[in-house]
Design brief:
mainly alpha; rod-shaped
């Protein structure tokens, strides 16, 4: 059973219009959106690709889905880069505290 192209397009448009997905704090929502893109759009488009008459619209939808996937992945990459920087700063602070502690006898 395949998802109608119109439903795939509507779901994709809803995700594209949700700029909140790009917010750093929206990691969980973004994760679910990426899953929806993969299963609800990209995989469904692959199934439909074997059916005649949809090729141009399917190619356009797939490009849009993949472009959104890249935007969401970049948002995750920015979040992870910030978290790595913060962890490194905390490690440096911990090391500095350890160095200032008197050594035990």
């Amino acid at each position: 059973m395949s998802i109608p192209v119109v439903d795939i397009a509507a779901g994709l448009a809803a995700l594209e219009g949700d700029n909140g997905l790009l917010a750093e704090e929206a990691f969980t929502v973004r994760f679910h959106a990426l899953e929806e893109l993969e299963v609800g759009a990209i995989d469904a488009l692959e199934v439909l690709a074997g059916h005649p008459g949809h090729a141009p619209s399917l190619a356009t939808l797939r490009r849009r889905a993949e472009a959104l996937q890249v935007r969401l992945a970049r948002a995750d990459a920015r979040l992870f880069a910030r978290l790595r920087r913060e962890i490194e700063m905390l490690r440096a602070e911990i090391e500095s505290i350890r160095e200032r502690q008197p050594s035990s006898p």
